[in-house]
């Protein structure tokens, strides 16, 4: 894809141009770190690091973001800073997912013309291979939405431009361009096939071929195929949700994709691998676990319980030896920065539909709980390193309140995590990162070293 002429004005850069321009300085840094500093110690690895799931070990090269106890920065900018500077889609007050995607790939803020052109390029790619659609339509509705998407991605791999390029011997330093072709196709195709899964499972196939808006963004076209054409709140929810969830460093799904990518697995199968690990309840599966917990709480003590009733309910959970989902985080030690925009969304766009009022009440209870439960947990579980609410405490409930079935919610998260990860995938190829191959050790081998 070449630079696009823009009516006599300066040419609008494509994402290919922007990455190409950034590449020499990143390659230079890569070469410097590899050649000049290869023997410098970055961290003293302890037995605790090995026994403790490598927690906190700075050993996964990650170009697009960095996460630490205080939060996450994307190319050095916090979420809040990005929300202020990234352009918004026409008529939207949420961060534009397309702008966020552009930024993650390039480390630069797209201007309005670049955003429009990028969105148009993505809209032009809004076509899922017929083989994938037919396969999708043949799946039993009893299969979970996530499993369906994973299976569709494995069929989609037959159409990978990256794999074709590999097979036809494309030069190594050009592979990132083919990876980017697949990645861009997947940014728009994954939501579309997800909407098709939804239509097949929950809407007797209605709207699965509804005409898309070629001038719309991915969220609007997703909403159209979900049967939510013109539903501004839903489209805004999707924009907000996707831009928040695109990347969070080397968490389990992203780490899985990074590992898979390191073996040059194609982008579609790499996405499938990340979605599989995302289903675990200790990772993105926690979104559904938190939602189920909150539903059970509302059923037991009602949508407007006293703080004492909430405390009693939570103590009962703890006495059974269960965790209270939605609080604490593997890495963050203060409030999850992604909660702020979600809470703002809840406060500025209350659920008004009378049919959803129970969900609306539940959502308000959960939002309220986020302010009182941390203290309850601090008093009853003093060993918890952080009791702050995490993003899972509210995000699933919010989507449920906007009418999404619980089984489908993980897919909405999976779509965005895939969008963010593809930026890393393309940089994996652009920098020529090596295959991940750590050593495995038995406990006896560790003992023998002590
Ligand atoms: C995520 O966004 O994936 C979660 O916060 C999990 C994590 O960062 O470890």
Automatic annotation (TrEMBL):
Pfam families: Citrate_synt. It is found in: Mitochondrion. The keyword Metal-binding does not apply. One of its GO terms (cellular component) is mitochondrial matrix. GO terms for molecular function: acyltransferase activity, acyl groups converted into alkyl on transfer. Keywords: Mitochondrion, Transferase, Transit peptide. Gene3D superfamilies: Citrate Synthase, domain 1, Cytochrome P450-Terp, domain 2. InterPro entries: Citrate_synth-like_lrg_a-sub, Citrate_synth-like_sm_a-sub, Citrate_synthase, Citrate_synthase_sf. GO terms for biological process: carbohydrate metabolic process; tricarboxylic acid cycle. Belongs to the citrate synthase family. This is Citrate synthase.
